[in-house]
Records
---
Amino acid sequence: MKVLIIGCGRVGSTVAKRLAAEGWEVTAVDEKEGALSRLGEDWTGGFVVGHGMDTDVLREAGVDDAEAVVVATDGDNTNIVIGQVAQKRFGIDCTVVRILDPARAEFYRQRGLRTVCPTSTAIDVLTDAVRSCEIRREPEATPA
Amino acid sequence: MYVLIAGGGKAGANVMRTLLRNGHEATLIEQDRERFERLEREFEHQAMLGDATEIYVLEKAGIRRPPDLVLALTGDDEDNMVICQLAKEKYGVGKVIARVNDPRNQAHFDLLGISPTVCATSSILGLVEHEVPEHELVHLLELRKENLEIVEVQIDKGSPVAGKKVESLPLPEGARLISVMRDGRSEIAVGSTELQPGDQVLAILQPGKEDELRRVLLKA
């Protein structure tokens, strides 16, 4: 099974390595050539330097026979557009898009895009973490 | 008319100025603080600081009313696409106009159903084609929805089709001649129309058939 990872930063590169370890054929795409180093010296998957908005770059990375695409560049709107191109133009149903802004993530989720919003997740996790703290209250001082 | 403009560069600011002068109501959103401060001096409360792809910014600017027209004129194509999608599909704005900064992104605008679009670079390229004689085939119009385009070809003396009738031409599949202009007069091209040197021919064709058409009409 073949997957494209668009945006090879901290998130993209780690997703790439995990999926590769699980047997996926992975090709990462990033504008910066230096991003390749994030994949580690023993990286055997593909790597294409270029912008994910460029369909020639997507083709070079093998979008035509990919089963899945993960879009995780550092720009929300860039991810939104690339995700829709992968889904609508190349017909890849399993297109997963990172969107940091919860409002846009929700809007595009309703429109059928598989969006992942790390901000919403962080909000939930942080709130739950506070709730689960056992806070010992100091006994209120009683007036003498 | 109420118009919402995203992007306060030269295009956005000039459109804003003209709309206000003509008595329309308009709001201009700009995300760069320095540029916003200049715009605010001119447009006062009608200029707004913020990222027009953020839903709360759009709502503060009155997108819920909704505006009669939204113009996405930022220098970023992805931003312009998202602004148009939000305007049309979330808030029911009837008409949007988008600026395309990089002509290579035109296909993405089309894919997302964003129309009309304006691309200065494409317009300039079209004019250049008109001026440069090497471009024997001039693109006049792209019918994107129909996946067709209209081109203009000048029939030269050395052309293999000079003196031939349209019905005898080995035109490629997916290409037809529309009209022939001769001595300033234009006629619909029919089977019996005979081509002559100096004719300006309009043809309609599927994109990608240009080379085949060029071979038939121009190359001996």
---
Amino acid sequence: MAVAIAPPEEPGWFHLVGIHLRKDLRIEWRSREAIHSMIFFALLVVVLFSMAFDPTAAASREIAGGVLCVATLFASVSALNQAWSREIRHDVLDALRMTPADRSAIFVAKVLANFLFVTVVQALLAPVFFIFYNLRPLGNGWLLLAIVPLGTWALVANGTFFAALSIRSRNRELLLPLILFPIFLPALLAMVLAVKTILTGDGSDPHLLWLKMLAGYDIIFMTVSLLLFDTVLHAE
Amino acid sequence: MKKLWIALGMLAVAALMLWGFNQAIYVAPTEATMGDVQRIFYYHVPNAMLSFLFFAISFVASILFLAWRNTAPARAQAADAWALASAEVGVVFCSVVLITGPLWARPVWGIWWTWDARLTTTLLLWLIYVSYLLLRRFVEGAQMQTLAAVVSVFGALDVPIVYMANRWWRTQHPAPVFGGGPDSGIKDPTMLAAFGWNLLAWAVWGLMLLAFRVHVERRNQQIQHKASQAALAGR
Amino acid sequence: MTETEHGPSQPLSQPPSTSSGQLPPLSAPTPVAQLDDLSRLFGSFAALRRIQYTFLPGKCYVLLGENGAGKSTLLRILAGLLPPSHGTITLFGSFTPAQACGRIGYMSHAPMLYDELTGVENLAYFAALYPRSQTLSPELALQQVGLDPALPRKVGQYSQGMRQRASLARVLMAQPDLLLLDEPFSNMDIQSAHQMVALLDKLRQPGRTVVLTTHQRELALPIADCMLTLHAGQIVSEGSAHRS
């Protein structure tokens, strides 16, 4: 536990994000609660939809984008509900609220950590998904590597923010999806349509409007979240 | 005396609503292609316009609450009452829109619902403000107002995004009647009159509802304030 | 951040020539915390009612009172975790609790540490969130409270007494000028409680103010400079206690 490189006197903002992120990842590595529950949950959703619709290759291209996004959504909510649970359990959040360092770094690190967890789940799930739905993208497959992370970021950033907002409610775990889903709707729409365009290769979106919209959504909501996080954290 | 004026005002609003009803159902001519079902337009469009207005009021009031909550608590409380009241009235008006829309769409389009720009936006608005009202019930204490105002800001940000998204995507809704293009606008003066009367009637009715609701909420706040003063005094 | 030199206390402290350098100056020193007409409501329940009080530097205040008297609420307001419903609170002369948060240490019933990390890991994490010159090293802070920094156990596996001490180490590490302790002896056997008292006595420093709440008056007696009793949200009695 030797002190590594001497950090600057006042820790910089990015340095702070790094500190929080390292702590979040270390704790998750030791328990692996979020990842395990998410993987299994997402797998269940994919299997359930596959059974319910019995997709043929053509039809599956139409609906697979939606299933992928909804599976991500449900799986993430189970993890996002727990996003701040360790901070709440022993009033750690109070200790964090009293530190003089910029609190928005806590939020950004939490978003990054959850984003990593969800991305790992998606990476593990992708092969299963393509097998169950007999998929072969007809459009630009590599664009998925931009669309899915952007959509996931929209979900996780908003989810982490509203999870922090629901901390003080009576039915915390019920409230989160009730607020998150309507507000996430535009991003879900863009993500589903963008994925569908690629899987079906119908060329309906030559200017990548959906991708740009997702990016715009991410920027707008991340900015507002950063501005309002302290307000939500100290609302008491 | 004040009560008398309020009663007279309510009577006037009721008379105006009846007059609007008469205009829409009996006076305005039957539309050539759609038939009588077009008369729903006289309710659907004014309600839609007004629900957007109420949600806009709620959004502005929420911003004002966030701005004033630390510096001017008394004014912030008033802003919160306006935010809550206009969100509630807005949800009522929006519900009317969401009910009358499919009733009209079924005979004219042949389908109840489609994911079109304005339909999606309206439904999203309705969902967001219902979740806003739910949040206000789920959270207790002084922090509830702050959290609700934050959700309101997020919800309002969503609306232009989803609206633009749907314009790019697909639209089935009739082109805007007013300001939609060179061919837009109502040509028949009696139709225009019926629409104008109904818009006025619903606007006055909605504003009256809003005024009552704000008044009730302010009373609630006064009662709570008195209770807290009593608690501070120790009895 | 820490310029306590300024203010009127320095020039004013010269004229009354006190014989002993040990005693604080007779003129009023800058109060640590000034509560002016402070109230806190939860719904229509008044947890604190119109409190008027000044906490002076370097003293140890013990807050007594039954459950629901407002002790914890008062500490949370001093810590800046809870805004007052009415009235104002001024810390260190001219700061709000939010501005002064880096100089306040707060220990609640809960340990405020992550179960999944060891003591040193927890403290190293929190230390990184404070200016580096201000903090003690995590190892030193743990040694001060009598814990072994090399202990590989996670905080989740600590005993109650160890958790309380680790929590105290977290607070002490930031070298606060105002130390707020909510029930530091709760859920402890009598021996650990006495150790905690001895520890607190040892850790008193000139200029460091301690405010602690407890049910066990006798335990806190040896370190208390001033005993405050809260009842129904008001300070009903104030008595100085002689340190033994």
